[in-house]
Design brief:
Layout lengths: L1 E6 L5 H5 L4 H9 L4 E5 L2 E6 L1 H21 L4 H8 L14 E2 L5 E2 L4 H12 L2 E5 L6 H14 L5 E6 L15 H19 L2 H9 L3 E5 L11 E5 L7 H8 L6 E7 L13 H9 L5 E5 L9 H39 L1
Parallel strand pairs: 6-10, 6-11, 7-8, 7-9, 9-10
Antiparallel strand pairs: 1-3, 2-3, 4-5
Helix pairs in contact: 3-4, 5-6, 6-7, 9-10
Length: 336
């Protein structure tokens, strides 16, 4: 009799074992000649060597499926053992699958440009309005790279700038204080990584979520680093962030020119970066528009309405400026 341990290091054991251990019971029924004992992410198997080897190979295929699709059903188990699994059915356009098994793929031309730029450039600026999916696609690309073991960690950051209101004193430790600013990043991660696995990644620093100020002095290697809401960085802050880039690292910087929450006296670092870095090889700048908005259809209409109002105010301001100039000229003529 032989005893061997199989470690599930790539997937959530809860997904692998199934609801109420239904998948585990099916595995035991499919391999009656070996004894299978599961605890946490370790499966202990006892039995004949030939049977154990066959079981290990089968478990590897099941784990690949669970990692790829974020789910494993009894139907999947039967299909995979018959060699009819969905591993080969993955569409080229799919980046990753959600925790419910839903494919996450680009939904607009500019989202596809982000994915294409990922293949050739190590730094990508994705600039566009709210709801255009720029941060969501960036996080999906990072999660895929982590699952494929192309990198060792994901680092997500945001400047801790209040959006037009003063929040005052926030209770709790440092994590409690900055988490409200970083919640949108948590939301995206929770859609793509099972809850227990995500918690494990955060606890072991495989996934790090931190405010921009915490990046100073670091060198970021073997990572995907995402800076969200970059329009709220100063030029000095963004320069500091970009120069953290180490070996085997990709950076994705997302932002929206129309939602700058900095004081009027400070110029956005994102605006400066577009001017200073636009001709550097290896850096992509992707400008997204209303046509890329993939949230509720009202979001696109709201953005359009605000753009129209801003254009009207600008036109009125220009007209007022022209009137003042004419009056000054008339006054000067009178004095002459």
């Amino acid at each position: 009799m032989l005893e061997r341990h199989i470690v599930l290091d790539g997937t959530d054991p809860a997904i692998f074992y199934g609801v109420n251990n239904a998948n585990l019971r099916m595995l035991k029924a499919l391999f009656p000649k070996i004894r299978i004992i599961a605890r946490d992410n370790i499966i202990k198997v006892i039995g004949d060597e030939i049977e154990i080897v066959a079981f290990e190979e089968y478990c590897q295929r099941l784990e690949r499926h669970a990692v790829l699709f974020n789910q494993l059903t009894e139907e999947d188990i039967l299909s995979i053992i018959k060699g009819q699994g969905k591993e080969t059915e993955r569409l080229e356009s799919v980046i990753v699958y959600s925790t419910g098994g839903k494919p996450i793929a680009p939904r607009s031309d500019n989202q596809r440009r982000i994915v294409e730029s990922w293949q050739k450039d190590d730094m990508i600026f994705a600039i566009g309005p709210a709801g255009s999916g720029k941060t969501y696609i960036a996080i999906a690309l990072a999660v895929r790279a982590l699952k494929n073991k192309e990198i060792r960690k994901i680092i997500l950051s945001r400047p801790a700038v209040e959006a037009g209101e003063k929040l005052g004193f926030l209770p709790g430790d440092m994590k409690d204080k900055v988490d409200p600013y970083l919640q949108p990043l948590y939301d995206a991660l929770q859609e793509m990584i099972p809850a227990s696995k995500l918690q494990e990644y955060i606890e072991t620093n495989v996934i790090q979520i931190a405010p921009l100020a915490f990046m100073r002095g670091r060198t970021l290697n073997d990572a995907v680093v995402i800076l969200d809401e970059a329009q709220n960085t100063t030029a000095a802050q963004l320069k500091m962030f970009l120069t953290r880039m180490g070996t085997n690292t990709k950076m994705l910087i997302t932002g929206d020119y129309t939602q700058i929450d900095l004081p009027p006296s400070q110029r956005s670092g994102l605006v400066e970066a577009l001017r200073i870095l636009k001709n550097i090889p290896g850096i992509s700048f992707i400008e997204m528009g209303r046509e890329d908005i993939v949230r509720h259809r009202l979001v696109s209409r709201i953005v359009a309405a605000y753009e129209k109002e801003e254009a009207r105010q600008k036109q009125e301001k220009n007209a007022d400026t022209g009137t003042i100039s004419i009056k000054r000229k008339e006054n000067n003529s009178t004095h002459l």
